[in-house]
TrEMBL record:
GO molecular function terms listed in the Swiss-Prot or TrEMBL record: oxidoreductase activity
PANTHER family, per database record: THIOL:DISULFIDE INTERCHANGE PROTEIN DSBE, THIOREDOXIN-LIKE PROTEIN HI_1115
Gene3D superfamilies, per the entry: Glutaredoxin, Tetratricopeptide repeat domain
Signal sequence extent: 1-20
Keyword Signal part of the UniProt annotation: yes
Record GO biological process: response to stress
Native organism: Spirosoma arboris
Keywords for this protein: Signal
Lineage of origin: Bacteria, Pseudomonadati, Bacteroidota, Cytophagia, Cytophagales
Keyword match Ion transport: no
Name of this chain's protein: Redoxin domain-containing protein
Taxonomy, superkingdom: Bacteria
Residue ranges occupied by any Thioredoxin domain in the UniProt entry: 483-629
Length: 631
């Protein structure tokens, strides 16, 4: 049978000329048969392509669309045509849909005007089987076949397919009614809203006892139409149909989350677990309760709670965060150790999650190191240095210093010192310093230890540390050299908090660091500990001065006095009440750090605070040192 798609057969149309043909044999294929087909591309978008292949899916009833797995069919060229074969399974399939493409340039396709080419299944009497037409619409609305083509389906065509199926097989309406109405909504034909709402009500009225699925589908349709009053009404009906169903569980879970009274929240959670022991919400609620115990400082209760939870409902990263915070704050340390040990046990028992990161084994190892790091910290804070040192050895990887954590490296070396393993830890510490993964505290500790070794002196220790830092500092200097600017430094004279006149003319030949700030500026205040460290590094250098210029305060000066009285910063604070100095120095936001070189030129400007004190101190220190050297 040679078939040109048109109204002749199943409303299947072709937008090409009569010479663009697709035919198949037997002419009325049935289940279990092999179908041979011929594709003639002469007037299609693939007319000039020579390497063609077919892509197809089988389809069936809406609840059988899992069979619609895209598959390639090989084409054999015969003259100007291409031939191929397809097998129709013995059950479930009601048709096959195909499109053709260039196998080497898959973006070049023939989709038959977006309707695909169709081979419908027939029964023994030669009649088209139910779902042969509606199933085509399901391919568009219930499968991912169209994704391969980077196109969207035509809702008008999909509506036509659904309506033809329902006209031929009205008894199939319960399977297609919601998909049909969803297609009408996407079609957005004039007057579609009232029409769809009437259809929904008519369908539900025809069902004396609508199923949960039907109520859910109706709710989704009303949601698409933006009628949330109807949506809420239908959801209430769903709850009566399934009093222990997902909607009821969701509402109860939301109520537990929103409960602000801790005792009531615990009681509500316990009732939820009793009523819905297999609920999908239990894992999220367990996290809520875990945080609740922590926030209410019931750490013993927290330990008891998490140890009662199934491993599938235990979030090890949440436990890690809590245990680490307890360790940092040096409180409930035995419980912190117990929590993190439990988290390690759970992680070991965890199977691969249903929705897992790309490489689950690599992710598991990452989590293992995070948990072990916290475990070592809980031991260290309890004075269990020997145990902590052993655990840190499982965390530290001397061959991967570039990806190490500077704080962990410092703690590792401190534990090594306290357990007489400093020499063993030395290779990792040296590698960390060489790749800029060492805190200032670690560098100081290493220098002091090195100076005390037989035959060494403080001078040798300084040279030893400088040699370790030489390469990374050279790289940093090169990077900083590109960031340095060269602009005039406007003269200024301001009064500081002590009533003294602070004049730029008094600092000729010196390096001046200006930090523009205000008491209301969170990042400004957050950067002060780092700025204090930077100032301390040069406190004995008469050629370096730090000035913390208060600007854009927008309030009484007493606020600045009160702030400095409450904090232990030995800063010189000039008051730029009119913002003249800030404007002159092109301050666009605060905090802004400006460094003036000995030649009276602005050489460095940085806005904001990265949140990394170590990086801030290191960069400012390098800038100051470079300017002192005349760079």
């Amino acid at each position: 049978m040679r078939l040109i798609f048109g109204v002749v057969f199943l409303l299947l149309t072709c937008c090409f000329s009569a010479s663009a043909q697709f035919c198949f044999s037997p002419e009325r294929p049935q289940l279990g048969q092999i179908v041979s087909f011929t594709y003639s591309p002469q007037t299609t978008p693939l007319a000039k392509d020579s390497t063609l292949e077919g892509r197809y899916v089988r389809y069936g009833a809406p609840n059988m669309m899992q069979i619609s797995k895209p598959t390639t069919v090989t084409l054999v060229r015969q003259g100007a045509d291409y031939v191929g074969e397809l097998y129709i399974p013995t059950k479930d399939a009601t048709g096959t849909m195909l499109f053709f493409r260039n196998s080497k340039l898959p973006q070049r396709t023939d989709l038959n005007c977006g309707q695909f080419y169709v081979i419908p299944v027939n029964d023994a009497s030669g009649r088209i089987v139910p779902h042969a037409t509606g199933g085509q619409a399901s391919v568009f609305t219930r499968s991912h076949f169209l994704n391969e083509t980077n196109t969207r389906f035509d809702p008008t065509w999909v509506v036509t397919l659904y309506e033809h199926e329902l006209a031929q097989n009205p008894d199939l309406r319960p399977l297609y009614w919601s998909d049909h109405l969803a297609a009408l909504i996407k079609q957005r034909k004039l007057g579609y809203g009232p029409k769809v709402k009437n259809e929904i009500e008519a369908y539900l009225a025809s069902r004396p006892n609508p199923t949960l699925a039907e109520l859910t589908d109706a709710s989704k349709l009303y949601e698409s139409l933006g009628d949330f009053q109807k949506v809420n009404a239908l959801r209430e009906r769903q709850k009566t149909v399934e009093p222990a169903g997902s909607l009821v569980q969701k509402d109860r879970a939301i109520a537990i989350r929103a409960q602000t009274d801790w005792n009531r929240q615990k009681a509500a959670y316990e009732a939820f677990v009793h009523e819905f022991p297999t609920s999908s919400h239990l894992s999220d609620l367990a996290v809520i309760m875990t945080n609740g115990y922590f926030k209410n400082n019931d750490i013993r209760g927290l330990v008891a709670f998490v140890e009662q939870q199934p491993t599938t409902q235990t979030d090890v990263l949440v436990l890690n965060t809590i245990a680490y915070q307890l360790a940092e704050e040096r409180r409930s340390l035995p419980e912190a150790e117990q929590l993190i040990k439990h988290a390690l046990t759970v992680l070991k028992a965890h199977a691969k999650p249903r929705v897992a990161p790309g490489n689950w084994e690599a992710e598991r190892q990452t989590r293992q190191r995070q948990l072990m790091n916290t475990y070592a910290r809980t031991l260290e804070q309890q004075g269990k240095y020997a145990e902590a040192y052993t655990v840190y050895q499982d965390v530290i990887n001397p061959d991967d210093a570039e990806n190490s954590d500077p704080r962990t490296n410092e703690r590792y070396f401190l534990c090594a010192l306290r357990t007489n393993h400093a020499t063993d830890a030395l290779p990792m510490v040296e590698a960390a310093i060489q790749v800029d993964k060492a805190t200032s505290g670690l560098k100081t500790t290493l220098r002091d230890w090195y100076a005390k070794q037989p035959g060494n002196t403080p001078a040798k220790a300084d040279a030893y540390l400088a040699n370790l830092e030489a390469d990374i500092k050279a790289d940093q200097r090169d990077e900083l050299q590109e960031k340095l600017i060269n602009e005039p430094a406007p003269a200024f004279a301001l009064t500081d908090l002590l009533g003294r006149t602070i004049s730029s003319s008094a600092f000729k030949g010196k390096v001046i660091v200006l930090d523009f700030w205000a008491t209301w500026c969170g990042p400004c205040i957050a950067s002060f500990p780092a700025m204090q460290q930077a100032q301390t590094r040069f406190q004995n250098d008469p050629n370096v001065r730090f000035l913390f210029v208060n600007t854009r305060e927008g309030g009484p000066l007493q606020r600045v006095h009160s702030f400095m009285d409450k904090h232990p910063y030995n800063f010189v604070v000039p008051l730029d009440t009119q913002q003249k100095v800030a404007n002159a120095y092109k301050v666009q936001g605060i905090p802004t750090k400006v460094v003036i070189g000995p030649n009276g030129r602005v050489r460095y400007r940085q806005i904001g605070f990265s949140g990394d004190p170590e990086a801030t101190v290191n960069e400012l220190t390098l800038v100051v040192e470079m300017l002192k050297e005349g760079k």
